[in-house]
Amino acid sequence: MPKVRRIEFPNANGDLLAGSLTMPDLPPRAFVLFAHCFTCGKDSAAASRIARTLAGHRLAVLRFDFTGLGGSAGDFANTDFSSNIDDLVAAADYLDRTHAAPALLIGHSLGGTAALAAAGRMPGCRAVATIGAPATPDHIERQFGASRDEIDATGEATVTLGGRAFRIRRDFIDDLHRHDLAERVGALRRALLILHAPLDDVVSIDEAGRIFQAARHPKSFVSLDGADHLLSNADDAQYAADTIAAWSRRYLPDDQPQRPAVEGGELWVGELDARFLRQVASDDHAWLADEPRSMGGSNLGPDPYEHLLAALGTCTSMTVRLYANRKQWPLEDIDVRLRHRRDHGADCEGCDDGGGTIEVLSREITLAGDLSDEQRQRLLEIADRCPVHRTLTGRIRIDTVLAAAS
Q1: DSSP state, 343?
Q2: Domains in the chain: how many in total?
């Protein structure tokens, strides 16, 4: 399960901004900075779902509340689009100081517009993805309605957006008009992915077209067919996150160990962390090995003895099935359960190593089908003849050599 850590970091004015850092179980491939929509917060349903899904792709995600919103300090009435950009840069600086600079920047709605404007101030950012973003920040003015006249007349007004009240000042609106986003998008020099719902009734899909036209390649567009502006349906949020993860893989660093060429019959084991997590690979397959949490591991894969039992169990099942098929016996199903234990064997011969203990692998086989007693007994004898069983009970020599470090 991804781990969520609550963090705080200062913005340019020294106000503490509240954030959530979602870390994957495996070491992260890259860090992601997520900018939420204007009326949302870091804990919105879409932001939380996207962060969890990206963590499943080994991406660590920082989402945070802009100044004066959610758990962040400061007065929202004193903020504007420029301060939102500054908050994003402060969040990127925090990640750079504590982990690594964000390589991917994601913005939802006006957060996407802010992400496009902020990306140029983040040298480590390699890719930007927007979700339902307007092409210009002054698009939000259309949501002010009759309050726009009050802002012009008195200098400020309370505006209701998404069911929440915000105090908006004239300086906020003036700042929106100062940003030429088309120019910034044209000079972005980052890979860009635009996701937008065709029937978005808050931000028209025409806005996505304007962003796409202003951007240079590499740029991509994905239609969020059937989704609403807030991605309130969990499947839509997960689809958006999975799409971003697949698209961004081309542009993000990957710190997984480079798997060497493995020939048939060989097995390679490489480190994924400095404790027990290991990547195991054959010529065509890859999987994980780990230790349980009680032993200091992360329990992300079978431990070495579970691999050993799996080798014996699978070989047993395959061997019995091949024999029954060849004999055309009515064997319907095979169930094999295995355990490993250490028994005290003070009187056993050949127990000169291990302080008088012997390693015991217990194997329990269930054979389903209309089999005679003689057939069942014969299949039990065949189980003892499986290749892995014969290897484990025969004379084994393990030749270990020290290879030159690459």
Answers
A1: E
A2: 2
